[in-house]
Design brief:
Layout lengths: L4 E4 L4 E4 L7 E6 L10 H19 L3 E8 L15 H9 L3 H18 L7 E4 L4 H13 L3 E3 L3 E4 L34 E6 L17 E3 L3 H11 L3 E7 L3 H16 L4 E7 L2 E3 L2 E2 L10 H6 L4 H9 L7 E3 L1 H22 L9 H19 L4 H13 L4 H15 L15 H15 L3 H13 L2 E6 L2 E6 L2
Helix pairs in contact: 1-8, 2-3, 4-5, 5-6, 8-9, 9-12, 10-11, 10-12, 11-12, 13-14
The structure holds zinc ion (ZN).
Zinc ion binds next to loops.
């Protein structure tokens, strides 16, 4: 087992990864708030989680991965004011809050599946863990960390001596935080449990020892991580935007309840920008995986693009960069598929044997160094260009792919012998598509399929693969 180093936000440096109970690793990731479409910026984060899990598995650790679904309690402002995002979305779309949550959860997983992101071992919804959240708030109440206002039950952050250490001390947290709720004692205090408004009936609300109410955004993650991974666990991940408020408050809650530091390693993924700008609804640049598909791209090209950057650096997405990623991925798949067809292994020289080991070590060293997939990919290309035997190249590529997850072993090499009549049909179809006659083009697609070939549209034109 080689050493793995992870950048730990808590210590602000790369640290050697040593789990609490090896070879077991408990990992919790903040999941989506299911009120809207998950976009490619979210996907960057979940590809990161997937690489981390694969990396740990590759190094013989056994990961138990838990991810929550926020289906209640996340307000339009992180400062415990505004509307519940899911109830708001439900009202706008004329659906029930539960329908909205279910719909967008399904959309989320369809997107992660398309990027070959493995599903968590446990997916837990906030609305299905109300009792656990109430129990945790009761514990905090017993331990003297709470107070009640007209708005709800609040956590008194002044009672913890080290509150805000994840974000770099008290000055670093929640810039601009205000005491904008009547009865709130300190700017950084936050809602654990919010009373339902008296003038409005919520769809999602529950009875509790303190009256009809709904959970604050942070309590679900403390309650559910504790339930599934215990009071202390190894890795907690999320976006950099979670550091100042959400994760800071998760630590406060868990510590207030158990007296223990809940998480050993905090991993945070940087933002994805689009055309050099922050992703936002108003800029209409919150592209989804479906948008990527509609433009004729393979969603896996997006995964490849994410892998080309270090997760702690911001990454700028452009359609041009995706195009480059797609052509690199296609080249990689084609090369690996061609290698897979080589003759059985022959004995090789000592020198070449050493070279094979060298590439393997170099790759492991790269990815084990804080998930540096960019360097890992560079090693992959260098290895493919080298003079080691083809069968070793193929084996190494498939081994590296255990971490990268590009499904290199599943790709079929493009067909060399395409019957002339099929070629003609494809060309005719391409012209029809260019002319915007999608109906007739689709008829030809079916004809091509009847002849035993699948035709796919890529930015570089049509691509044919044999029907399996
Ligand atoms: Zn969370």
């Amino acid at each position: 087992m080689a050493d793995i180093y992870l950048y730990n936000t808590l210590g602000r440096k790369k640290e050697l990864f040593v789990p609490l109970d090896p070879p077991h690793v408990g990992m919790y990731s903040c999941g989506p708030t299911v009120y809207d479409y998950a976009h490619i910026g979210h996907m960057r984060r979940y590809v990161g989680d997937d690489v981390l899990k694969r990396l740990l598995g590759f190094n013989s650790f056994q990961v138990k991965h838990v991810m929550n679904i926020t289906d209640v309690g996340h307000l339009t402002s992180d400062a415990d004011t505004g509307e519940d995002k899911i109830e708001k979305s439900a009202a706008e779309k004329g659906k029930s809050a539960f329908e909205i949550a279910k719909f967008f959860e399904e959309q989320f997983f369809a997107s992660t599946d398309a990027l070959n992101i493995g599903r968590p071992n446990i997916v837990c919804r906030a609305t299905e863990h109300i009792n656990e959240q109430i129990a945790l708030i009761k514990k905090l109440e017993e331990n003297g960390y709470t107070y009640i206002t007209d708005d709800g039950i609040y956590f008194d952050t002044s009672k913890l001596k080290d509150y805000g250490r994840l974000a770099g001390g008290k000055e670093g947290i929640r810039p601009g935080a205000r005491v904008d709720i009547a009865g709130k004692k300190h700017p950084t205090d936050f809602a654990l449990w919010k009373f339902s408004p008296k003038d409005k009936k919520r769809q999602m609300e529950w009875d509790s020892p303190w009256g009809v109410a709904f959970p604050g955004w942070h309590i679900e993650c403390s309650a559910m991580s504790m339930k599934y991974l215990g009071e202390t666990f190894d890795i907690h991940s999320g976006g950099v935007d979670h550091i100042a408020v959400h994760h800071t408050n998760e630590i406060a809650q868990s510590e207030g309840a158990t007296g223990k530091d809940p998480v050993k390693y905090w991993v945070h993924y940087e933002f994805l920008q689009v055309d050099g700008q922050k992703m936002s609804k108003s800029l209409k640049n919150t592209y989804t995986v479906d948008d990527v598909k509609k433009k004729g791209f393979d969603p896996m090209a997006l995964r490849y693009l994410f892998l080309t950057a270090y997760y702690r650096d911001p990454l700028n997405f452009t359609w041009k960069s995706l195009e480059a990623a797609q052509s690199a991925l296609e080249k990689l798949r084609t090369q690996v598929a061609a290698l897979g067809k080589q003759q059985p292994r022959t004995t090789i020289s000592q020198e070449k044997n050493e070279k094979v080991d060298e590439y393997r070590d170099k790759f492991i060293k790269s990815v084990n160094d804080d998930m540096n997939t960019a360097t890992g990919l560079a090693v992959m290309w260098e290895m493919l260009k080298s003079n080691i035997p083809s069968e070793d190249k193929y084996d190494l590529a498939i081994t590296f792919d255990e971490v990268l997850g590009l499904k290199l072993g599943e790709y079929t090499a493009p067909i060399v012998n395409i019957p002339q009549e099929v070629e003609k049909l494809v060309a005719k179809r391409e012209n029809l598509r260019k002319a915007g006659d999608y109906r007739d083009a689709d008829k030809l697609r079916i004809k091509v399929e009847e002849k035993g070939f699948i035709v796919e549209d890529t930015p570089g034109g049509s691509r044919l693969t044999p029907k399996r």
